[in-house]
Amino acid sequence: MNRHLISAGDLSKDDALLILDTAEELARVSERSIKKLPTLRGRTVVNLFFEDSTRTRISFEAAAKRLSADVINFSAKGSSVSKGESLKDTALTLEAMGADAVVIRHGSSGAPHRLATWVRGSVVNAGDGTHEHPTQALLDAFSMRRRLGGLDGRRITIVGDVLHSRVARSNVLLLATLGADVTLVAPPTLLPVSVGSWPCEVSYDLDAVLPKSDAVMMLRVQKERMNAAYFPSEREYSRRYGLDRDRFAKMPDEAIVMHPGPMNRGMEIAAEVADSPRSTIVEQVANGVTIRMAVLYLLLGGETVA
Amino acid sequence: MIIKNVRVLGGEPVDIRVEDGLIAEIGPGLSGGEVVDGRGAIALPGLVDLHTHLREPGREDAETVLTGTQSAARGGYTAVHAMANTSPVADTAGVVEQVWRLGREHGHCDVQPVGAVTVGLEGGRLAELGAMADSAARVRVFSDDGKCVSDAVLMRRALEYVKAFDGVVAQHAQEPRLTEGAQMNEGVVSGRLGLTGWPAVAEEAIIARDCLLAAHVGSRLHVCHVSTAGSVEIIRWAKSKGWNVTAEVTPHHLLLTDDLVEHSPVGAYNPIYKVNPPLRTRADVEALRAALADGTIDVVATDHAPHPVEDKETEWSAAAMGMIGLETALSVVQEAMVDTGLLDWAGVAERMSAAPARIGRLPGHGLALGAGAPANITLYDPSVRTPVDPSGYASKSRNTPYEGMTLPGRVVATFLRGRPTVLEGKLT
């Protein structure tokens, strides 16, 4: 494995499988009454969050604490960053504090790459701009593998605002590495012009793709995209690309529904679909802690799993 | 003074006698007076840059007229056109005269100010173009560079208005709505990197419109930093109609491509490659080289854009756009055009000296080396290859994308009206 986890595309198939398998082992530990492992005792993990994301930060925090690491939460709001400190100076500060790993969430694509040039510790990308969110893709893959029994040859459909989605980018790369067949479905305005070069299929027709899907991942669509003319109205988006009950019925019986959250119920996904037993949305959250434990554990070279 | 043993435009070795700032005689075996040994270097007419950001007034932390003209001299330039996007903007006779005077006082290289087209570069109303033209700086090139004159009516009026004093509007072609928040060339790499794309069409649409406008009002249009294959096609078409359209390309657009943003020795997302217009694809680079070779593109202009370290040592989206280029331009042109067989040294002299002086209506520059011409001369040794090391640059800034690359050639000496500004590669 690399020293950092910045892009899902940096993971070889062996790396990805090692993370997923390690997560399986750690999940078994989590079922014990005492969930905490001593593996990262004395190591420091910094959560460096330039964007508000309580969900992701808590997930990383729980993961690090279950491995007994010391956790420092550094939120940009109200800190020196809001007083104009540069990312580089923040990085040098963390470096001086002896951070073994820095988990970074940043609104600018590529910020983790830059950070990695300024710190010695491992950098974990917890979402950068509209680029990537590799631990989300890993937890999605973990969730799918558990439900579907494997990923090789599985047909995964990702629906929504691919253009601005770091979740979609990381998922396409990771799922391709793991041998799944990915199809992106979106209005053409919400796909990169170069999407033809990605390792996946592309369709504008959700109804045609649903019957051939083993998993359908709905992406959050931000309503403000409407104002930039990406689509005419919420209702039109929902009619053409929303996963409502009728569309849900077109999916194969065993197919699952996923969403990275937070959801716009009634927009990209109907409430009864989100809450159905075939939805993995709550599991994804739980699996997030497990997969982040595996990532920190492997990057920081912990001892063997107890 | 005799400059011994130089090869004019790469020809046979000759000597050049300089008297009173003029070339008195060129021929073999000249003697008498002070001697500068050219050691077989190529002699070119002093280079003229049509597109330089000197940053003074306003951003003297990035560059000043002094350091910028020293940088220009070291790059073989005897004249630069100083872009108008300073603070205050060069949109009045007062500001352009100040910049022009600073250039004269320092004496490393002539500084010809460019005037803003619109007040404050804001695209709202015309700046006093006539006053700038009539000032001591006698401005002939007008540009809102950094911003596009996107309003079609305003562009039409500017093109028409400058005819009265033989001016030219140099357009920064960038449709603003299509490039809101744009970070890099829109294509395969931007899609992967999740950076907002700067589509080629945003440049091409403006160029097409402006060519049609220039034809309609019978005026001169100059297109700044052409960066796409499509732009080349449009300019070629406009020229085939006989319209008065000229164009420039930067050295970096002749050599570098957008995949450096993803894969480079200095890491992904390194803003050293952030520039406007953005680096494009290999196909664009090939089209630009071919266009420069066949004359569709008239000029190599540096778009030398100095920025202090802290404006580049950031995350990509926060970084300033631009690259320095005066001290590497000739080497990059040799690498991209001469060593590839696309252009000979006469062609280099045309594209980097004669044509920019002609477009800028700059007297005393860009003239062929011959008896009676001002002794603006650049001596260049194309035989060496060295790693680019900006630590010794005269520019105040270090934002060169070529650091660590090995490039050919070296400016040996520069003469401004017979007076050496650079000798043995060093400022005099």
From TrEMBL, chain A:
Belongs to the aspartate/ornithine carbamoyltransferase superfamily. ATCase family. One of its GO terms (molecular function) is aspartate carbamoyltransferase activity. This is Aspartate carbamoyltransferase. The gene is pyrB. Pathway: Pyrimidine metabolism; UMP biosynthesis via de novo pathway; (S)-dihydroorotate from bicarbonate: step 2/3. Catalyzes the condensation of carbamoyl phosphate and aspartate to form carbamoyl aspartate and inorganic phosphate, the committed step in the de novo pyrimidine nucleotide biosynthesis pathway. Heterododecamer (2C3:3R2) of six catalytic PyrB chains organized as two trimers (C3), and six regulatory PyrI chains organized as three dimers (R2). One of its GO terms (biological process) is 'de novo' UMP biosynthetic process. Keywords: Pyrimidine biosynthesis, Transferase. One of its GO terms (cellular component) is cytosol. It is an enzyme of class 2 (transferase). The keyword Transferase applies. L-aspartate binds at K83, R166, R220. Carbamoyl phosphate binds at R55, T56, R105, H133, Q136, G261, P262. The keyword Lipoprotein does not apply. It comes from Nonomuraea montanisoli. Residues 153-299 form the Aspartate/ornithine carbamoyltransferase Asp/Orn-binding domain. It catalyses: carbamoyl phosphate + L-aspartate = N-carbamoyl-L-aspartate + phosphate + H(+). Its EC number is 2.1.3.2. Residues 3-145 form the Aspartate/ornithine carbamoyltransferase carbamoyl-P binding domain. SUPFAM superfamilies: Aspartate/ornithine carbamoyltransferase.
From TrEMBL, chain B:
Zn(2+) 2 binds at D145, H172, H225. GO terms for biological process: 'de novo' UMP biosynthetic process; purine nucleobase catabolic process. Transmembrane segments: none annotated. GO terms for cellular component: cytoplasm. The keyword Cytoplasm does not apply. The keyword Electron transport does not apply. Substrate binds at H53, L54, R55, N85, N276, H307. Binds 2 Zn(2+) ions per subunit. PROSITE patterns: DIHYDROOROTASE_2. GO terms for molecular function: allantoinase activity; dihydroorotase activity; zinc ion binding. Its cofactor is Zn(2+). It catalyses: (S)-dihydroorotate + H2O = N-carbamoyl-L-aspartate + H(+). Gene3D superfamilies: Metal-dependent hydrolases (3.20.20.140), Urease, subunit C, domain 1 (2.30.40.10). Zn(2+) 1 binds at H51, H53, D145, D303. Belongs to the metallo-dependent hydrolases superfamily. DHOase family. Class I DHOase subfamily. This is Dihydroorotase. The gene is pyrC.
